[in-house]
Amino acid sequence: MADSTYDVVVVGAGAGGGTMARVLAGKGIKVALLEAGPMIDPQKDFKTHKWPHDYGHRAAEPSGKAYFGTGTAFGFFTTVSGGWQLEGEPYTSAPGTSFDWFRSRVVGGRTNHYGRMSFRFSEIDLKPYSRDGIGWDWPISYEDIAPWYDRAEEYIGVTGTVEGIPSAPDGKFHEPPRPKVHELLMREAGKKLGVPFIANRRAVITRSINGRQACHYCGQCGRGCLTESNYSASQVDIFPAMKTGNVTLFTEAMVREVEVDANGLARGVVYIDKNARTEKRVLGRAVVLSASSCETARLMLNSRSKAFPDGIANGSGLVGRYLMDTVGFSLRGTLPALENLPRYDTDGFGGAHLYAPWWLWDGHDKLDFPRGYHIEMGGGFSMPGPGGFGREARAAGYGKELKRMVREQYGCGIGLSGRGEMIPNNQSYMDLDPDVVDRWGIPVPRFHFSFSDYEWKQARHMERTFRDLIEAAGGKVLGIGNLAREREGIAVPGSIIHEVGTVRMGSSPQSSVLNEYCQAHEVRNLFVADGSTFVSNPDKNPTLTINALSWRTAEYLAEELRKGNV
Amino acid sequence: MSSANGFVSIDNLSRRDAVRRIALALTAAGLGRGIDSASAAEVHEEIEGERTFRGEYTVKYFNEHEFRTLERLSELIVPADEGGPSGRDAGAPEFIDLLSSQNSELARIFSGGILWLDNASDERHGKRFAEAAEPEQTALLDALVDAERHDTADDTNWDTREYRRFEVFGVKSPSDARRGLNFFAWTRKMVVDAYYTSPAGIKDIGFMGNASHTEYEVPQEAIDYAFGRSPFRDA
Fold first, then answer.
1. What are the residues facing A355 on neighbouring strands?
2. Which among A29, A451, A484, B35 is least surrounded, fewest beta carbons within 10 Å?
3. How sure is the predictor about A475, in pLDDT bands with cuts at 50, 70 and 90?
4. Which chain B residue has the Cα nearest residue A349?
C-alpha cells in the first residue's frame, strides 16, 4: 500500500498542533494530524456537572486510589488522559536529578484540563538578556507577536481588564466575572503591601462567540466543558478544523522519527500504529512538530540520518538543551473573617477571578533574584470531595462539635501560589537514555535538572509575600500548599507542567535550532509549534503564547507553501 | 450476608498467593464468583452503576458485626443534629464497604481496626464496641482523640525555618489507644467524606455550586460580613 501524502504532517494534537491544523485547513491545505492517544468525546468523557455521590466511590476513585495518592492527577473529575507516569512509557533521570514529565495523550492534549491562565509575554519578557544580562533574548519583539496574540485571543476568548501594566500587556478581552469575597480581602491586603490584584485572564468566554455558549459559571473547567465555553484545542481548534474536510486525523499514532530525503529535507514521519503495533508512514511537503516540548525534542533526537547523525536539524547540538519549568511555591492559610460567611456560589468561571501580575518588574535593585512571578489564588466554598475537612475533623475529634466546626470553617481556606520565571541553565536538559526504550521500541528521554539560586531565592520571596498577604488579611498560615510536591520549599521540576525550551528559536544557527518563524535553520520544511521553541520561560503560563506563535508559524508556512519555497 | 472470607489476609501475602488463596477459599465455600481484583474494567462498571446510599447497596466485604460496628461509628463521628442526618444515614458504612471490597489495604485497616476496637472495648467494659452503651462507646472514642492530641509534633519534614506548626499531627502517645489511631483516622476521614459528599451533607454546609447562571453574582451581604470582621473594616 502506498504511503499517504499530505501537504503538511502535524505531529501532536494539543494547543500548538490544534492551532496549526485549524489555520492551515482553513486555507485549503491538506493536513495529516497525528495524535499519540485516542479521540476525545466530550459527551462521554467529560464529567461536567456530576456530583461525588453519583459514584459509589464518592470521587475517591475505584479502590480508593485518591486516598493513596495514586488516583487521577488533579482529582477524579478532571478530564485528563495521562499523568506523570504512563504505563509502558518510562523516562529516566540522571543520578542526583529529577524531573516529572507530564504527558496527556489524547486529542486536545493538556488543553482539555489545563488551568487556562492566559497571559501575554511582554517586551520585558522577550528581551530579558538586554535588561539584566542573564540568559538570552528572543529573536522576536512584542511588536512581532502582538498581532498574533490579538488573533489568538479573539478566536479563543480570554477574559480580562485593560490595566496598562508593562509586565502584563493588555489584550482583546471578554468581560471578567466579579471578584469573590476572599479575593476582595486579598486585594485589600495587596493594597497594603503594594501587590496589585487585577481581573484574571483566562481562556473562558463570557459572551457567545463562534457558536460557543457563554460561560455558565459552574466552575468546572478542569473537567472539560460541554458548552465549549472555555478553550480546548479539541473543541475549539480540531473539531472545527475537521469539518473543513482538509484534516485527516490519525489517533493512537506514536511518531518515532522524521525521515529525510536525499536533499536533507523532511519527507514525512514514521509512526507506530498503537492498535496494530505496526510501523507506518505519513508523507508531506512539510512537517510540523507540536508533540509537546520534551516529546518534540525526543523525536528530533531520535530522527538520525546520514545528514543528521545527532538528530534532525541538530547541528547546533542544542536540541534538548535549556529545559525549563516554572518556579512554583504555595502557602495555605485560613481567614477568620470568613467564618460562618453567608453562603453563595463561589464556583465562578473555574479559577480565581483575580490574580496579581508581577509587580516588581522595575524593582530588581531591591531584590536578590532576577525576573519575577505572578500570584494565583484559591479559596471559596468548593464542592466537598474526598479528603475535605480533615483539618476540622482532627481539631474537633468527632461528634456534634465536628459538624459545628465544619460549618464554621467551610470556605475559610485561602491558597496562594507563585508561578515564576526560571532562568535557562546548562544543567537542565534532556537527552536520550542509552539503555531504555518504551513499549513502542522508541528510545526514551533522560532528564537532567537543576534549579539555581535564582529560583530558590525567588521561591523564598514568594513565601514571605504570601505569608504577609495572608497575615495582612487577619489570617493564619497553615502550611505549604502541596506537601508531596513542594516538600523542599520549591515545586518538583516538571510538576507545574510548564516545561518549555528544548528546541529554541534564535537568530543564529549556532545558538538556536529554529529561526524566528520556528522553522528549523537546517531543514527548511521542518517547523515546530509547541513550548519547545521558547527561549525563556517567563512567569506567564505558556499556552496562549504557544497558540499565538503556532498561528504565526502557520501563516508563514502557508505562504512558503504557496510560493513553492517549501 | 455473605462475605469473602480470606480477603482480610491479602495484605500478608504476595498478590499471586492472595489471588490463589481467594480462589481456593471461594471454591471451598462453593461460591462461583469471587473478587477478581485484576479485572479493573469490571470493577469500574460496577462502581459507576451502584451508588453507596443506604438501602440501595449490597454489602460486599464486611460481615454483619463489622458492618454494624461501622454503622455505630458513623453515627458517633457524624451524629444527626439540627443541620442534618448522621454519617450512617449518609451511606458512610456502604462507602467504606465498597472501597474495602476493592482494596486489601483498606480491608486490613478496617477489619483489624474493628477487632482492635472490640478488644479495647471488652477490656474496658466487658463487651464488644457495638454492644456497649453510648457513654462507654464515647469514652473509648475520647481516649482515641486524647491519644491523637497527645503529641502534636509536625511530621512534614519541611524544615525551611517557618510554619513548623502544621496541623498535620504525628502521634507519640504512650496510651495503648494509639494502636487504634490509624483505624480511627481512616474511619473518621471516610465517614466525614461520605457525609459531606452526600446530598444531606451538601445541604448541611450550604454548598450552592455545581449550578448554571447567566450572570455571576457575589452578594453584598457576604462582602459586608467578611469586611466587617476583617482588618479592613474601615476601608
1. A198
2. A484
3. very high
4. B216
C-alpha R_g of chain B:
22
Do A64 and B212 make contact, defined as CB atoms within 8 angstroms?
Answer: no
CA dist A234 and A241 (Å) reads 10
Residue A407 domain boundaries: 4-563
Q: Name, in order, each residue with C-beta under 8 angstroms of A464's C-beta and a sequence gap of 6 or more.
A: none
- Mean pLDDT along residues A111-135: 97
Count, residues in chain A? 566
Q: Say which residue the cell 507563585 belongs to.
A: A418
Chain A: residue nearest B235 by CA?
A188
DSSP strand E in A290-338: where?
Answer: 327-334
- For the stretch A236-266, pLDDT in tens is 999 999 999 999 999 999 999 999 999 999 9
Q: What is the mean pLDDT of residues B204-223?
A: 97
Q: B163: which chain A residues are within 8 Å (Cβ-Cβ)? A: 331, 467, 477-480
Angle subtended by helix axes B134-150 and B181-196, to nearest 10: 110
Helical ranges in A81-159 per DSSP H: 123-126, 128-132, 142-156
Number of compact structural domains in chain A = 1
Residues of B in Cβ contact (< 8 Å) with A58: 52, 95, 193-194, 197
Distance between CA atoms of residues B11 and B182, nearest Å: 16
Q: How far apart are CA A353 and CA A356, in angstroms?
A: 11
- Kind and range of the H or E run holding A479: strand A476-480
State which amino acid sits at residue B182: N
Nearest CB to A383 within list B103, B210, B226: B210
Residue pair A271/A279 in contact by the 8 Å Cβ criterion: yes
The answer to whether residues A446 and A365 touch, using CB atoms and an 8 Å cutoff, is no
What distance in Å separates the CA atoms of residue A26 and residue B124, rounded to the nearest whole number? 78
CA nearest to B80 within chain A:
A400
Q: What is the CATH number of the domain that holds A87?
A: 3.50.50.60
CA B106 to CA B101: how far, in whole Å? 8
Strand ranges (E), A37-114: 82-83, 92-93, 103-104
Chain B residues lying within 8 Å of A458, measured CB to CB: none
- The ipTM of this complex is 0.94
